[in-house]
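Mods, move this if it's the wrong board.
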Amino acid sequence: MTDAPSLAEGYEISADPARIDVERVHRWLSTDAYWALGRAREKQERAIAGSLNFGVYDTASGDQVAYARVVTDLATFAWLCDVYVDPAVRGKGIGTSLAAAVRDHLRPHGLRRVLLATHDAHDVYGKVGFEALEKPDQWMALLFEKFERLSDDTS
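Not the wrong board. Structure tokens:
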């Protein structure tokens, strides 16, 4: 497996949920992340509460500069999601270091797989071992928005 890239000097990664700046994370995701635009604050709080959370912090100011969330049973499966790096610190390898830290945190649990979906960051995740699904035709998704529209059409 790919080695962990070193985190840029002046930053640290933590999985301490008490350090998550919920307001900042919600603002980032609900206003700037294509997959979470308009997400309600209450929904983001529930997502954080039900997940394993990672933050990257500026060691001088203590400010959070990046975030990642993992939905997992810590036994068989995990889904890496809501990965966001503040635009002011992009280009420093923080996203790659964060993905590697998540991978390394999950590795001892013996999970069978960690999934993620990305529109434009394949290179970031590829550097830490993620690759395209070998058999994507074996995977399916239930999209409630689409399902509910179909249900309404048949009523």
